[in-house]
């Protein structure tokens, strides 16, 4: 598939961008007016970028190289689908690169190449369906990161292995054994021992987003799902769900 603007999400508010003068990593560029643009909706393998003790993720240099070849010294437009500035004063936008063959949607391009994963936020949820579809194709075709065990989809029924990934952004697949509401939150339990097994936790603010979308996460009991997010360790490995797109339903029973 050609990652061009003809198939881009129509929900975006488009604006002029400028010329790309620097590519920081596989999902961040700098424009000629000084703006740093974080390519919202995706996460490429990370480089240390001066962070002490931070290890380069596998394929991070390759992702930076490919994005550089696509964008450096090119004119771009920006597409906004949510919050526009983050706490680091970066511009949050979808990036459209002007080429002789038309505009190329940089996020979709990188995901299609297997050099980025879908990575969304509760205040920036536009265009994710197209990115999820591209990620699924790249994963099936074993492109880029999908050949490297560092990025493997983890099994929810192996909590010991998930504990080794605490502090990492992971995709975790498994069947929901119990979907239970307790007070202002919902727990999706993937094992019988909730203090040891993997759990996805949906807090009150996220539940309001589910409700606004007409979704009830408690109906996921028995469903086969894929959860994505940052793994922490609270009574076993868990991921906090902040918005519905972190849960992909693979089968209802």
TrEMBL record:
GO molecular function list? endonuclease activity; hydrolase activity
Tell me what this protein is called. Answer: Nuclease (SNase domain protein)
State the UniProt keywords alphabetically.
Endonuclease, Hydrolase, Nuclease
Q: Which residues form the signal peptide?
A: none
Task: Tell me yes or no: is Nuclease among this UniProt entry's keywords.
Answer: yes
Q: Which domain of life is it from?
A: Bacteria
- Mind telling me which InterPro entries this protein's record contains? SNase_OB-fold_sf, Staphylococal_nuclease_OB-fold
* Keyword Iron assigned: no
Task: List residues of the TNase-like domain.
Answer: 14-148
């Amino acid at each position: 598939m050609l990652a061009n603007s003809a198939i881009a999400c129509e929900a975006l508010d488009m604006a002029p961008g400028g010329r790309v003068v620097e590519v920081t990593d596989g999902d961040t560029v700098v424009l000629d007016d000084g703006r740093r643009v974080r390519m919202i909706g995706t996460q490429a393998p990370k480089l240390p970028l001066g962070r002490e003790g931070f290890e380069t993720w596998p394929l991070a240099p390759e992702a930076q190289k490919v994005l550089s070849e696509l964008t450096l010294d090119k004119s771009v437009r920006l597409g906004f689908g949510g919050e526009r500035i983050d706490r680091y004063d970066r511009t949050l936008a979808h990036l459209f690169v002007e080429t002789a063959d038309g505009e190329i949607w940089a996020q979709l391009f990188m995901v299609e190449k297997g050099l980025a994963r879908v990575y969304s936020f509760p205040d920036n949820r536009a265009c994710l369906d197209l990115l999820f579809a591209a990620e699924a194709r790249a994963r099936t075709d074993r492109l880029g990161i999908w050949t490297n065990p560092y990025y493997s989809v983890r099994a929810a029924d192996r909590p010991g292995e998930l504990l080794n990934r605490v502090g990492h952004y992971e995709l975790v697949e498994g069947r929901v054994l119990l979907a239970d509401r307790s007070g202002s939150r919902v727990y999706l339990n993937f094992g019988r021992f909730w203090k040891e097994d993997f759990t996805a936790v949906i807090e009150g603010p996220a539940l309001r987003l589910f409700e606004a979308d007409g979704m009830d996460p408690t109906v996921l009991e028995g469903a086969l799902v894929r959860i994505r997010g940052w793994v922490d360790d609270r009574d076993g490995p868990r991921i906090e769900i902040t918005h519905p797109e972190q849960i992909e339903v693979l089968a209802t029973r």
